[in-house]
Amino acid sequence: MSQRRRRSLALLTSGVLALPLLTGCGAGDDEGGQAAAGQDIATTTRDKIADGGVLRWAVDTLPDTLNTFQADADTTTNRIAGAVLPQLFVLDAKGRPVVNPDYLEKAEIIEREPKQVVQYKLNQKAVWSDGREIGAADFVAQWRALNGKDSAYWTARNAGYDRIEKIEKGKTDLEVRVTFNKPYADWRSLFTPLYPKQVTGTPDAFNEGARGALKITAGPFGLGAIDKKTGTAALTRNARWWGRQAKLDTLVLTAVPRAERPAALAAGKLDLAEIDRAGADRIALARRDAAGKNGPGAGGAPAHGPGAALTPADATLSWATAFGVDEEKAAAETESRQKHLDSVKRYAEEQTALKAFTVRKSLEPAYTQLAMNGASGPLADERVRRAVARALDRQALAEVVLKPLGLPAKPVGSHLALAGQRAYADNSDALGGQDTHAAQALLTDAGWRKGGKITEPVGAKAGPESEQQDDSKTPSGPGTGNDGLYIVGQDDGANGDPRSATEDRAKSDAAPEGAQDGPSPVLAPAPFGAQQEASLLAQAAQVARAARAETTDDAKGVQARDEVDPAKASPAPAPAKQPVRTSGGMLAKDGKALSLRFVLPAGPGSESLRTVGERIAGMLRKVGVNTETIKVADDSFFKDHIASGQYDLALYSWPATAYPATDARPIFAKPEPAADGSLLVEQNYTRVGTDHIDQLFDQAVAELDEDQSRELMRKADARIWAAAGSIPLFQRPELVAVKPGLANAGAFGLGAPRYQDIGWKKAPTAKDKKK
Asked: Which residues pair with 121 in a beta bridge?
């Protein structure tokens, strides 16, 4: 399992789905263009930052392992490793790998023939926390643990390490020479992070020793206590650090679900937290209220929060019940009213605290895509996949999510890189842009036509004429929002049933953000549904006419009818002819309507994703394609649907990578048949791939000319676009709540944090105040 797989699984299962880009041409630093959005971290020089202090930084969960090379490593594992272990190469603001001078003086290919040789020249001051110099022994131990030759090591990946032939010390102890048995273009991805030989030297130490502790580290911070009860992991300043000392004394990673982060920020439990759209809206409202820009709602009611949904009629009904003659109902209503008042008061107090926070914004190193399962069904036909893709207005979809946030709303143009990275180029022209006529022509060519005969049972439910299916029977965990996968929200329950003021208020109190979106009108029944209704009404009319005919001869009476000579009796009327059912304005082929299962996760915090799904369904209906939305529990979304192939359409995200030739290959590799007849798909959950795409990846990863390697990646991307297995939509928004005075932290975008520079700004001096 590659590092990209580990990160992608975290996004898929958490509900947060992944990463996007721009255009690129030419060479050098301009190749790949500018990042779609820069970092928003309140950049401050170190001399203006105070020494000391504590930062409480929100994470989704505490890690199950501290070994980033194990299958259950997650984003918190990587964050800890970034602060406490050697990172030989780090990503700059454009997501490009650059030498980290804290560990390396330089690293370069010194020989290409007959074999590739890379030489690392280490920083002479670099030492482990036990005082030992970082050196060749650590490189050798990590290579042997990760090259795949010793199955006793429980590793998640061996890409790149399996191409190394030998590692040896150079002319001095500070030089490490790595010789490859096969050329490897992504050699910079290796040995980051670098673990001490005490961790990688034996299978036991690798498998178990580094799961819950790291006794030896070599970063600006060291690992302190991990407390499962409080959900915190403390990183403390490393006294042996040879570089610029960390400004903070302690960095406390605190596990808080995204839905609970606004309250935790307001309570002073967090200083820095990635938040979802609802959390960002709460902070924006708090700041507007503090500035006096928001007035009360109707009748003086709060303009937002748990009190905003209470109408005057609801309030009157609640009062009447609380002071009514039914003592049992009165007691229950009184208790409910008190809970509501407590909720309103708590919300108001939180809003007062939240007004001090700032929301920093950028675009995550991840993009959301529409995935199409090409293994079976209508989407097994490339023409249908291409038609679906060309029905999409990707610009409109990007604007729905990003424009309200004030972020650049540009569709992603590559599957393999993001705008700013050197491998980026917009290759979407290989498929073509939004074109309704082209989409309809492709569908017609594939045999799908409007008004086609339908031979499926009359009661069959498919597409928008059926109710949305919701398989999320068990409560899902708190949404992670961006976290990578946006989790689709629950049904709003607006089914026309009357509700009491108590029920309305209970729902409002449970979700104080008040950020739930209603269903979009695009989910209204399609013309095909109306056609089915007309057919059923016609059948009913025929039955009614036959019944009336049997009762028109009442004047003759029952006896007269009994005396009729059987031989002269009229023959029994023929049964009513079943009307021919057609697909109407929608498409059909071989007796079946064109209807696609659109699977989305059903947890909270995913209003944006739900809206995107509705917009896509509307765009597809315009070309005659029905979609059947199926919402599933978060914990089954990936395992039971995406990985197993039980879907036609799905929205999820992929993280970006600086090394696409290595990390992206398993995502787009052509599935291979297994001995039992199943498909080995690696991470290619669309089941769409070609031999040519695989060949281009293989050539790119072995091409040491960086310009040529990137050009091969762009060709592969164009082929991926043409195959239309997945359609990149937009780069995911990154929203981070930051406490006042915090510097060099926030929305990092494509870049990596520089942990030692994060800190609290110094109090302004009298001289500064005069300025």
From this structure: 106, 175
